[in-house]
Every structure is written in structure tokens, then in C-alpha cells.
Amino acid sequence: MRQLLYTAFLLLAGSLVQAQQQPQQHAVSNASNAAVKKGNQQYTKGDYAKAEEDYKKALEKDPANTKAQYNLGNALMMQKKFADAAKVYDGVGKEADSSLQTNSNYNKGLALARDKKLPEAIDAFKQSLRYAPNDDNARENLQKAINDLKQQQNQNQNPQQNPKQQQKPQNNQQKQQQQPQSNSKLTPQQAEQLLRNLSENEKQLQRQLQKQKGNLTQTEKDW
User: Fold this and answer.
1) DSSP labels for 24-62?
2) 19-157 falls under which CATH superfamily?
3) Which of 7, 26, 46, 31 is nearest to 16 (CA)?
4) Model confidence over 65-118: pLDDT tens digits?
5) Which of 11, 102, 107, 159 is the most buried (most CB within 10 A)?
6) All structural domains of the chain with their residue ranges
């Protein structure tokens, strides 16, 4: 039984594979089979570390034992050794039957996704679907991995700015507004004209004051 990606801890595809299920033309040695059987017993008990050791012993005796390879990947997955599990599933070669290859690619996709390697996980799920095009779980996990990768890429392209960084342009703009505009310089001609205007204004003001004094003097004479 298999579960969807990220929904509780996964029950791996195909669970355990018994060594005696190996096709006759690919029969493994009795010693390797015995080690696989012992590893399966440990796996069933939940002792995945010991199961890992037994599967490795089986592979030492017969490196071509694809069932031991697959079960080793399962034991690593249950220990959350996702990167190691993905490498082990890669070792299930083309000589394995199509069902085992399908399950290995599917579990490899789960391991890679758990290890945050989404592009590689997508490739693994695609490979699994090549062997089993009607596998709904593989198709749904593939779509989820694609969506998660797009979301990750969008976040990388549009990183959230630090609030302090957002405030800096506003603060700079406020400072610019508060500062007087002193960058505009007068030309010599403009400065001379400004002085003339000021002098003329001063003269007009003096004439007005003198006129006011004359009016006050006349009023006193009338009295």
C-alpha cells in the first residue's frame, strides 16, 4: 500500500519483498536469501536499523539481488535517511521486473521530495508513470511536486523585502521634502536684477514714509 506525498509517514510501495519471489533465471544464492529473510523479520518488528544491516549483508553476498536492494531502500526510508534511500533505489537495475522498477522509482520520488529535491523527485515520478501510466498515486504526487516547485521558484523570484528596507525610500523622500531647494543657482544677470528690484522697492517705501509725514504736519497746522 502506498500513501500520498506529505500525508503522514509513508507506507512504501510493495512493502517488503520476499527473496523467494525472485524469478528463477535471476535466482540468488541461498546465503543471500537467508540474509534477506532475516532482514524482513527485523523490519516487521520495527527494528529498521538491524534490517538495514541484514539487507547490506545480503548484497555483500550477492550484489545482483534486486529484492535486497529494494528492501534496503525501504529500511532507510523508515529511518528517514532519504538521501541514502534515493541512491539505493537507483541501484534497482533494469534487470528487475517492471513492478519492482515502478515501485523503486515511486519510492525514490518520495525520498527525493522529502529531501527537498523537487526537480529530481519529479523525474522519478515521471519514470514511475512510464511503467504504470494508470497509477493515480504517482500522478497525484507528480502534480504536487510540480506545484511545490513552482511555489518555491516564485518565492525565490519575489523575496519579501525587509520592513526596514521598505521604509528607507520613504524616509529618504521625506528628508528631501524637508530640505530647502538650494540647488538652483542665480546667474550674474539674475542677481543684478534682483538687487535693482530690492533697491527700487526700498526707494518706493521711503517716498511713502515721507508723504505720510507731510500729511501729519498739515493736520497740525489746521489745528
Assistant:
1) GGGPPPHHHHHHHHHHHHHHHHT-HHHHHHHHHHHHHH-
2) Tetratricopeptide repeat domain (1.25.40.10)
3) 46
4) 888 999 999 999 999 999 999 999 988 877 778 888 888 999 999 999 999 999
5) 107
6) 19-157
